[in-house]
Amino acid sequence: MKKNILFVALLAATLCSCDQFGNKKADESAQLMLDSLQRIIDEKDVELDDIMGSINEVQEGIRRINEAQGRVTIADGNRESASSKEVIRENMEFIQEAMQQNRDMIAQLKEKLRTSTFNADKLAKTIENLQRQVEEQAARIQELEAAIADRDTLLAAQGEQISSLTAENASKAATVAEQDKELNTAWFVFGTTKELKEQKILTKGDVLKNGDFNKDYFTRIDIRYDKEIKLYSKSAKLLTSHPAGSYNLLKDREGQYELHITDPARFWSVSKYLVVQVK
Question: What is the pTM of this model?
Fold first, then answer.
Protein backbone atom coordinates (compact mmCIF):
# COMPACT_ATOMS: atom_id res chain seq x y z
CA MET A 1 0.00 0.00 0.00
CA LYS A 2 2.89 2.39 0.79
CA LYS A 3 4.30 1.78 -2.70
CA ASN A 4 0.90 2.61 -4.20
CA ILE A 5 0.71 5.88 -2.28
CA LEU A 6 4.26 6.82 -3.30
CA PHE A 7 3.46 6.07 -6.93
CA VAL A 8 0.38 8.30 -6.78
CA ALA A 9 2.42 11.09 -5.25
CA LEU A 10 5.05 10.85 -7.96
CA LEU A 11 2.38 10.81 -10.64
CA ALA A 12 0.77 13.89 -9.12
CA ALA A 13 4.12 15.64 -9.16
CA THR A 14 4.47 14.72 -12.84
CA LEU A 15 1.08 16.26 -13.54
CA CYS A 16 2.10 19.49 -11.88
CA SER A 17 5.25 19.56 -13.97
CA CYS A 18 3.22 19.05 -17.14
CA ASP A 19 0.99 22.01 -16.22
CA GLN A 20 4.04 24.21 -15.86
CA PHE A 21 5.13 23.40 -19.39
CA GLY A 22 1.57 23.72 -20.73
CA ASN A 23 1.63 20.30 -22.28
CA LYS A 24 -2.11 19.56 -22.39
CA LYS A 25 -1.79 16.19 -24.10
CA ALA A 26 0.71 14.92 -21.57
CA ASP A 27 -1.56 16.19 -18.79
CA GLU A 28 -4.51 14.19 -20.11
CA SER A 29 -2.37 11.07 -20.46
CA ALA A 30 -1.11 11.41 -16.91
CA GLN A 31 -4.67 11.86 -15.64
CA LEU A 32 -5.71 8.66 -17.37
CA MET A 33 -2.79 6.86 -15.71
CA LEU A 34 -3.82 8.28 -12.37
CA ASP A 35 -7.43 7.16 -12.80
CA SER A 36 -6.29 3.70 -13.86
CA LEU A 37 -3.99 3.43 -10.87
CA GLN A 38 -6.75 4.58 -8.54
CA ARG A 39 -9.08 1.88 -9.93
CA ILE A 40 -6.37 -0.72 -9.34
CA ILE A 41 -5.87 0.53 -5.79
CA ASP A 42 -9.64 0.50 -5.16
CA GLU A 43 -9.95 -3.02 -6.55
CA LYS A 44 -7.09 -4.23 -4.38
CA ASP A 45 -8.66 -2.58 -1.33
CA VAL A 46 -11.98 -4.32 -2.02
CA GLU A 47 -10.19 -7.62 -2.59
CA LEU A 48 -8.20 -7.22 0.61
CA ASP A 49 -11.29 -6.23 2.61
CA ASP A 50 -13.09 -9.31 1.29
CA ILE A 51 -10.23 -11.62 2.29
CA MET A 52 -9.86 -10.02 5.73
CA GLY A 53 -13.64 -10.22 6.27
CA SER A 54 -13.56 -13.94 5.50
CA ILE A 55 -10.62 -14.43 7.89
CA ASN A 56 -12.56 -12.62 10.63
CA GLU A 57 -15.60 -14.83 10.00
CA VAL A 58 -13.50 -17.99 10.41
CA GLN A 59 -11.95 -16.67 13.61
CA GLU A 60 -15.42 -15.82 14.96
CA GLY A 61 -16.62 -19.31 14.00
CA ILE A 62 -13.72 -20.87 15.93
CA ARG A 63 -14.57 -18.75 18.97
CA ARG A 64 -18.27 -19.70 18.89
CA ILE A 65 -17.39 -23.40 18.50
CA ASN A 66 -15.15 -23.19 21.57
CA GLU A 67 -18.03 -21.64 23.54
CA ALA A 68 -20.44 -24.36 22.39
CA GLN A 69 -17.89 -27.03 23.29
CA GLY A 70 -17.68 -25.55 26.79
CA ARG A 71 -21.47 -25.73 27.15
CA VAL A 72 -21.44 -29.39 26.07
CA THR A 73 -18.72 -30.22 28.60
CA ILE A 74 -20.64 -28.52 31.41
CA ALA A 75 -23.93 -30.21 30.47
CA ASP A 76 -22.19 -33.58 30.21
CA GLY A 77 -21.56 -33.43 33.96
CA ASN A 78 -25.29 -33.97 34.48
CA ARG A 79 -25.99 -36.14 31.42
CA GLU A 80 -28.92 -37.91 33.04
CA SER A 81 -31.28 -34.92 33.05
CA ALA A 82 -33.53 -34.33 30.03
CA SER A 83 -32.60 -30.62 29.88
CA SER A 84 -28.87 -31.44 29.77
CA LYS A 85 -29.40 -33.96 26.99
CA GLU A 86 -31.22 -31.28 24.97
CA VAL A 87 -28.40 -28.76 25.60
CA ILE A 88 -25.82 -31.28 24.40
CA ARG A 89 -27.84 -32.20 21.31
CA GLU A 90 -28.44 -28.57 20.28
CA ASN A 91 -24.81 -27.52 20.83
CA MET A 92 -23.39 -30.54 19.01
CA GLU A 93 -25.63 -29.76 16.02
CA PHE A 94 -24.42 -26.14 16.07
CA ILE A 95 -20.78 -27.27 16.30
CA GLN A 96 -21.11 -29.59 13.29
CA GLU A 97 -22.71 -26.83 11.20
CA ALA A 98 -20.13 -24.23 12.27
CA MET A 99 -17.24 -26.64 11.57
CA GLN A 100 -18.50 -27.22 8.03
CA GLN A 101 -18.94 -23.47 7.48
CA ASN A 102 -15.34 -22.87 8.60
CA ARG A 103 -14.02 -25.58 6.26
CA ASP A 104 -15.96 -24.07 3.36
CA MET A 105 -14.74 -20.57 4.22
CA ILE A 106 -11.10 -21.65 4.34
CA ALA A 107 -11.46 -23.37 0.95
CA GLN A 108 -12.88 -20.13 -0.45
CA LEU A 109 -10.03 -18.12 1.12
CA LYS A 110 -7.44 -20.37 -0.52
CA GLU A 111 -9.12 -19.91 -3.89
CA LYS A 112 -9.33 -16.12 -3.44
CA LEU A 113 -5.66 -15.95 -2.51
CA ARG A 114 -4.70 -18.16 -5.46
CA THR A 115 -6.45 -15.85 -7.96
CA SER A 116 -5.45 -12.66 -6.15
CA THR A 117 -2.94 -10.16 -7.53
CA PHE A 118 -1.43 -9.81 -4.06
CA ASN A 119 1.95 -11.21 -3.26
CA ALA A 120 0.58 -12.10 0.16
CA ASP A 121 2.85 -14.53 1.98
CA LYS A 122 1.58 -13.27 5.32
CA LEU A 123 -2.03 -13.83 4.29
CA ALA A 124 -1.18 -17.36 3.16
CA LYS A 125 0.42 -18.08 6.53
CA THR A 126 -2.65 -16.64 8.30
CA ILE A 127 -4.95 -18.94 6.34
CA GLU A 128 -2.69 -21.93 7.03
CA ASN A 129 -2.81 -21.10 10.73
CA LEU A 130 -6.61 -20.88 10.63
CA GLN A 131 -6.80 -24.26 8.91
CA ARG A 132 -4.54 -25.76 11.57
CA GLN A 133 -6.80 -24.37 14.31
CA VAL A 134 -9.89 -25.78 12.59
CA GLU A 135 -8.27 -29.22 12.26
CA GLU A 136 -7.19 -29.22 15.91
CA GLN A 137 -10.67 -28.15 16.91
CA ALA A 138 -12.19 -30.95 14.80
CA ALA A 139 -9.96 -33.48 16.60
CA ARG A 140 -11.15 -32.19 20.00
CA ILE A 141 -14.78 -32.39 18.87
CA GLN A 142 -14.27 -36.00 17.76
CA GLU A 143 -12.85 -36.82 21.19
CA LEU A 144 -15.82 -35.11 22.83
CA GLU A 145 -18.29 -37.02 20.64
CA ALA A 146 -16.54 -40.29 21.51
CA ALA A 147 -16.68 -39.45 25.22
CA ILE A 148 -20.40 -38.63 24.99
CA ALA A 149 -21.06 -41.87 23.08
CA ASP A 150 -19.13 -43.88 25.69
CA ARG A 151 -21.05 -42.22 28.48
CA ASP A 152 -24.37 -42.83 26.73
CA THR A 153 -23.45 -46.51 26.36
CA LEU A 154 -22.51 -46.69 30.03
CA LEU A 155 -25.71 -44.95 31.12
CA ALA A 156 -27.78 -47.26 28.94
CA ALA A 157 -26.06 -50.30 30.45
CA GLN A 158 -26.58 -48.92 33.94
CA GLY A 159 -30.23 -48.21 33.12
CA GLU A 160 -30.73 -51.78 31.93
CA GLN A 161 -28.97 -53.08 35.02
CA ILE A 162 -31.12 -50.93 37.29
CA SER A 163 -34.28 -52.02 35.46
CA SER A 164 -33.21 -55.65 35.76
CA LEU A 165 -32.45 -55.26 39.45
CA THR A 166 -35.71 -53.42 40.01
CA ALA A 167 -37.68 -56.15 38.26
CA GLU A 168 -35.74 -58.83 40.14
CA ASN A 169 -36.29 -57.09 43.47
CA ALA A 170 -39.98 -56.62 42.69
CA SER A 171 -40.24 -60.31 41.84
CA LYS A 172 -38.44 -61.28 45.03
CA ALA A 173 -40.61 -58.93 47.06
CA ALA A 174 -43.74 -60.41 45.50
CA THR A 175 -42.48 -63.93 46.25
CA VAL A 176 -41.66 -63.03 49.84
CA ALA A 177 -45.04 -61.34 50.25
CA GLU A 178 -46.81 -64.39 48.85
CA GLN A 179 -44.80 -66.74 51.08
CA ASP A 180 -45.49 -64.54 54.07
CA LYS A 181 -49.17 -64.53 53.21
CA GLU A 182 -49.21 -68.31 52.97
CA LEU A 183 -47.38 -68.67 56.28
CA ASN A 184 -49.96 -66.48 57.95
CA THR A 185 -52.99 -68.04 56.30
CA ALA A 186 -55.43 -70.33 58.12
CA TRP A 187 -58.91 -71.73 57.38
CA PHE A 188 -61.87 -72.11 59.66
CA VAL A 189 -65.35 -73.55 59.45
CA PHE A 190 -68.24 -73.98 61.86
CA GLY A 191 -71.35 -76.01 61.32
CA THR A 192 -73.69 -78.58 62.72
CA THR A 193 -72.75 -82.24 62.80
CA LYS A 194 -74.93 -82.84 59.76
CA GLU A 195 -73.36 -79.98 57.77
CA LEU A 196 -69.85 -81.09 58.61
CA LYS A 197 -70.62 -84.66 57.56
CA GLU A 198 -72.15 -83.51 54.30
CA GLN A 199 -68.95 -81.70 53.46
CA LYS A 200 -66.89 -84.75 54.49
CA ILE A 201 -65.18 -82.66 57.14
CA LEU A 202 -66.44 -84.99 59.83
CA THR A 203 -66.33 -88.69 58.99
CA LYS A 204 -67.34 -91.39 61.54
CA GLY A 205 -66.48 -89.09 64.42
CA ASP A 206 -63.07 -88.15 63.01
CA VAL A 207 -62.33 -84.66 61.76
CA LEU A 208 -60.35 -83.98 58.58
CA LYS A 209 -59.16 -87.57 58.34
CA ASN A 210 -59.77 -87.83 54.61
CA GLY A 211 -58.21 -85.50 52.08
CA ASP A 212 -61.36 -85.29 50.01
CA PHE A 213 -63.20 -82.90 52.33
CA ASN A 214 -64.67 -79.77 50.75
CA LYS A 215 -61.97 -77.12 51.16
CA ASP A 216 -64.21 -74.50 49.58
CA TYR A 217 -66.44 -74.71 52.61
CA PHE A 218 -63.74 -73.13 54.75
CA THR A 219 -63.16 -69.43 55.21
CA ARG A 220 -59.64 -68.11 54.69
CA ILE A 221 -58.20 -65.73 57.31
CA ASP A 222 -54.93 -63.98 58.13
CA ILE A 223 -53.82 -65.18 61.57
CA ARG A 224 -51.97 -61.91 62.23
CA TYR A 225 -55.16 -59.89 62.16
CA ASP A 226 -58.17 -62.19 62.42
CA LYS A 227 -58.27 -63.06 66.10
CA GLU A 228 -62.01 -63.07 66.77
CA ILE A 229 -64.48 -65.42 65.07
CA LYS A 230 -68.23 -65.12 65.64
CA LEU A 231 -69.88 -68.58 65.78
CA TYR A 232 -73.53 -67.45 65.93
CA SER A 233 -74.51 -70.30 68.21
CA LYS A 234 -75.18 -70.87 71.92
CA SER A 235 -73.35 -74.18 71.71
CA ALA A 236 -69.76 -74.51 70.36
CA LYS A 237 -67.06 -77.18 70.49
CA LEU A 238 -63.63 -77.17 68.85
CA LEU A 239 -63.09 -80.44 66.95
CA THR A 240 -59.53 -79.69 65.81
CA SER A 241 -56.58 -79.63 68.22
CA HIS A 242 -55.43 -76.25 69.51
CA PRO A 243 -53.31 -75.71 72.64
CA ALA A 244 -55.21 -74.83 75.80
CA GLY A 245 -54.61 -71.32 77.00
CA SER A 246 -54.19 -69.96 73.47
CA TYR A 247 -57.90 -69.13 73.09
CA ASN A 248 -61.15 -68.41 74.90
CA LEU A 249 -64.74 -69.24 74.02
CA LEU A 250 -66.80 -66.27 75.19
CA LYS A 251 -70.49 -65.39 74.91
CA ASP A 252 -71.72 -62.11 73.52
CA ARG A 253 -74.76 -60.15 74.83
CA GLU A 254 -77.12 -62.47 73.04
CA GLY A 255 -75.50 -65.55 74.59
CA GLN A 256 -73.86 -66.66 71.31
CA TYR A 257 -70.29 -67.87 71.32
CA GLU A 258 -67.28 -66.04 69.96
CA LEU A 259 -63.82 -67.53 69.63
CA HIS A 260 -61.09 -65.20 70.88
CA ILE A 261 -57.58 -66.27 69.89
CA THR A 262 -55.22 -64.86 72.53
CA ASP A 263 -51.98 -66.45 71.29
CA PRO A 264 -52.13 -66.89 67.49
CA ALA A 265 -48.69 -68.48 67.18
CA ARG A 266 -49.56 -71.25 69.68
CA PHE A 267 -53.17 -71.59 68.57
CA TRP A 268 -52.24 -72.36 64.95
CA SER A 269 -49.06 -74.28 65.72
CA VAL A 270 -50.74 -77.71 65.54
CA SER A 271 -53.00 -77.12 62.55
CA LYS A 272 -53.91 -74.28 60.20
CA TYR A 273 -57.44 -75.69 59.99
CA LEU A 274 -60.07 -74.86 62.62
CA VAL A 275 -63.29 -76.85 62.80
CA VAL A 276 -66.00 -75.86 65.31
CA GLN A 277 -69.14 -77.89 65.86
CA VAL A 278 -72.20 -75.82 66.66
CA LYS A 279 -75.88 -76.48 67.17
Answer: 0.45
